[in-house]
Structure formats: structure tokens, C-alpha cells
Amino acid sequence: MKYRDAAAGVDNCALAWVVEGETFRTLTPDEAVAARNERARKMARLAAAEIPGVVFRPPEMATEQFRREVELAAEARRYTGERPTMWALRRAAVREALAAAFAERAAQIA
What we know:
The chain is mainly α. It is about 65% helix and about 10% strand. The chain contains 4 helices and 2 strands, in the order αββααα. It has a two-stranded antiparallel ribbon with strand order 1-2. A hairpin with a 3-residue loop joins strand 1 and strand 2.
């Protein structure tokens, strides 16, 4: 068996190294479950409530944009009866922002 195949087996919790990088063995079902649980525990992110002193405050632009996308989705649903994709909503939001910027610039020039 090639090294990369053995390393993939170790990553998938099916094999374990006996001598790191040289020899390996097949894990028993109980050992495989324990290895998967350990890997999941190590990879799990802490919930925001578990990180002391950290408070998430989304950027103002992001919340405004999200609210506008939700409004556009509701409006589109009223007219079409189907749910539009987020890409379509973002394109519409960009078009709307560009139109407002051009109108503002035209008012400044005039």
C-alpha cells in the first residue's frame, strides 16, 4: 500500500500508525468510532457563547443589504409566485445601488 493511501486511511479513521509513517494497522470498529469522535471534538469550533468577552455585531452594511435582499425576495415572490435565487437578488441590489449612484452624480453635475 502506498504512503498516501495509508495516510488517507488514517485521516478517515480506518487505520492507525504503529510506527509513524512506516507501519499501520486496521482499527477495530470500537477504535474507529473513538477515533472519529476524537477527530470531531478536535475540529469542533467553540460556540460564540463559550468564548469569553466576544460579542458578535454584524457590520451595518451587511445587515442593511440583507434586509434589502429579503425585501426584494418578497417583492419578487409577489410578482412571480416563485422564490428567486440569491444571485438574482444580489444582481438586483447592485443594479439598484449603481442607479442611485449615477442619479446622485448626475444631480451633482447638473
